[in-house]
């Protein structure tokens, strides 16, 4: 049975404010990571096979040689326009998932750490279970 999350506070934000905040956050994240993604894509393009992979330095030099410093940001406008409408739907659903979990936390989704048992087996434990 799903918990009723309609009465949960969302930092005092109305739904439309929450959607705009999610949009701005998503656009900021995508734009901040765009140069890193450009380097990764260039590394993939320079590599003809996995045995002959390109390095980060080779990718950076290739971008600078062909397009200059602006090459790291070529296409960022199209990505930013696409990220704006794509991100907001995930913000409320993530918030609802967090609010619907026990005690308002995602306790069940916390990372588990393997612990060795004396008999040689291992069990998964969550931080705080010990």
Describe this structure in words.
It is a single chain. The protein is mainly alpha-helical and 130 residues long. The chain has a domain at 15-88. It has four helices and two strands. A two-stranded antiparallel sheet has the order 1-2. A hairpin with a 5-residue loop joins strand 1 (113-116) and strand 2 (122-125). Helix 1 packs across helix 2 (56-67) and helix 1 packs across helix 3 (76-86). The longest helix has 32 residues, at 15-46. It is elongated. It starts with 14 loop residues before the first helix and ends in a 5-residue tail after the last strand. Residues 104-108 have low confidence and may be disordered. Solcar repeats lie at residues 13-100. It is found in: Mitochondrion membrane. It is a multi-pass membrane protein.
């Amino acid at each position: 049975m799903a918990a009723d999350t309609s009465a949960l506070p969302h930092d005092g934000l109305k739904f439309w404010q929450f959607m705009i905040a999610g949009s701005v956050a998503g656009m900021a994240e995508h734009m901040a990571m765009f140069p890193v993604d450009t380097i990764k894509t260039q590394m993939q393009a320079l590599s003809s096979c996995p045995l002959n992979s390109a390095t980060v330095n080779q990718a950076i030099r290739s971008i600078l040689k062909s397009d200059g410093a602006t090459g790291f940001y070529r296409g960022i406008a199209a990505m930013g326009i696409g990220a704006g409408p794509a991100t907001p739907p995930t913000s409320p659903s993530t918030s609802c998932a967090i609010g619907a979990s026990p005690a308002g936390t995602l306790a069940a989704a916390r990372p588990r750490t393997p612990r060795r048992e004396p008999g040689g087996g291992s069990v998964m434990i969550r931080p705080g279970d010990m």
